[in-house]
Amino acid sequence: MLAMAIDSVVVRQRVEDLDAAVPFYEKLTGATASRFAFAGVTLASVGPFLLFAGPDEAAQRVAGVAATLAVADLDLAVEEAEAGGAEVVVPVQPTPNGHRAVLRHPHGGVFEYVGP
Prior knowledge:
It comes from Streptomyces virginiae (Streptomyces cinnamonensis). This is VOC domain-containing protein. InterPro entries: Glyas_Bleomycin-R_OHBP_Dase, Glyas_Fos-R_dOase_dom, VOC_core. It holds the Pfam family Glyoxalase. There is one protein chain. This protein has a single domain (about 5-115), classed as 2,3-Dihydroxybiphenyl 1,2-Dioxygenase, domain 1, CATH 3.10.180. Helix content is about 25%, strand content about 45%. It contains three helices and eight strands, in the order βαβββαβαβββ. The chain has helices at about 20-30, 55-65, 75-85, and strands at about 5-15, 35-40, 40-45, 50-55, 65-70, 85-95, 100-105, 110-115. The relative contact order is 0.20.
């Protein structure tokens, strides 16, 4: 049994026009968007949503991940997920907002893990 805890889940949503989509999600969540660019796409984090837009090739890489899982200890989460049968697709690396890793769970789902 894994000892790590998932602190929150962020839903990923590809949008055609990030500027047009952000106001809807800000109103829906009551949160202000935090915008940034990463891996060839532009993104906006709004409450539990991660909106992204960009060229097809770059956007497909982001869309291939089902959700983002925030954890308090990224290294421990990766270690324990691997011990449970997960495969590391992208090892721990720095991002504009901390660190991330991408893992394929033993049942096929691909998830981004983020943490400090």
